[in-house]
Design brief:
The protein contains eleven helices and 13 strands. By secondary structure, it is α/β, with parallel strands linked by helices. The radius of gyration is 18 Å and the shape is globular. The two termini are about 25 Å apart.
Length: about 280
């Protein structure tokens, strides 16, 4: 049986208990405020980030790892006899995946598998959790790779945003699409599709946003093996209603708060779900 190490980046927004349970190596990306640089989740937390953004004229940027960082990480595990499964945020959102691919080519080994999740935050996190479960079931690294690649198109998301300003400022959404988020009382509903953030719908008010999210879950159905991830950025209004709805429907779910890199682009008061549909 393959001895497999699973590596991801901090945009997976995995709960600490999941990281510890499966011994996942999470490479933490960087957040830059002008000349100041912070390590995601170590030097700065989400509350500090949002407070800093509210009180600063500088819009923060995020930084991917260079290939050498991946080389250092991979070398360590290869020397310990591991094969490495490295799953990262969408290549359309960051150069992190490309850096990992360059590192693999520099090491000239077939014992590293690098996967473009075509997703971000809990969409990436769900794929990482599934890879861990498959590893526990005794699948080889190639078998896990095949399963994850087959799963990628079935990772679904429905996300309600208070505003789309940060997604536009961070280059994750076009200015034209971002106009919707500035209409008073309108909740933009987004999804991650083909590796990019896309506007799915728009509704008026929190209750209608929750209804749309729940309707999507009921229509598509979940696979039942991985949890629904209830993701939030300090949005108690939608979070509480959505949590109660998931409980009422006996859904298997966990709650996650976004990390700082994702928080830069999400901004305050975002909430929604990621899940793997039944297929």
């Amino acid at each position: 049986m393959d001895k497999i190490k699973i590596v991801t980046d901090s945009t997976a927004d995995l709960p600490k208990e999941v990281v510890e349970k499966y011994n996942i190596d999470v490479l933490r990306l960087l957040v830059n405020f002008g000349q100041e640089t912070y390590t995601d989740g170590l030097d700065i937390n989400l509350k500090q980030l949002l407070n800093k953004m509210e009180n600063s004229n500088i819009f923060p940027t995020t930084t991917q790892f260079n290939p050498q960082k991946f080389v250092q990480c991979y070398k360590k595990y290869l020397s310990e006899g591991y094969k490495i499964l490295s799953i990262h945020l969408s290549s359309k959102m960051s150069g992190t995946y490309q850096s990992a691919c360059i590192a693999k080519s520099m090491l000239q080994t077939d014992d590293i598998v690098v996967i473009d999740s075509q997703n971000v935050t809990s969409g990436l996190g769900l794929l990482v959790m599934k890879a861990c479960r498959l590893r526990e079931e005794g699948l080889s690294i190639k078998e896990i790779e095949k399963e994850i690649l087959n799963t990628i198109p079935h990772v679904k998301s429905v996300l309600a945003f208070e505003t789309l300003d940060n997604l536009v400022k961070g280059g994750r959404l076009s200015k034209t699409a971002g106009i919707i988020g500035n209409i008073l009382g309108i909740k933009p509903i987004l999804t991650v599709e083909d590796g990019e953030m896309k506007v799915k719908n728009k509704v008026r008010g929190s209750k209608k946003a929750v209804r749309l999210i729940v309707d999507t879950l009921e229509k598509l159905k979940t696979n039942g093996k991985e949890p629904i991830v209830l993701l939030h950025v300090e949005n108690k209004d939608i979070l509480e209603i959505l949590r109660n709805k998931l409980d009422e429907n006996n859904n298997y779910f966990i709650e996650c708060e976004v990390g700082c890199v994702v928080g830069v682009h999400a901004g305050p008061r975002a909430c929604g779900v990621f899940f793997i549909e039944d297929y």
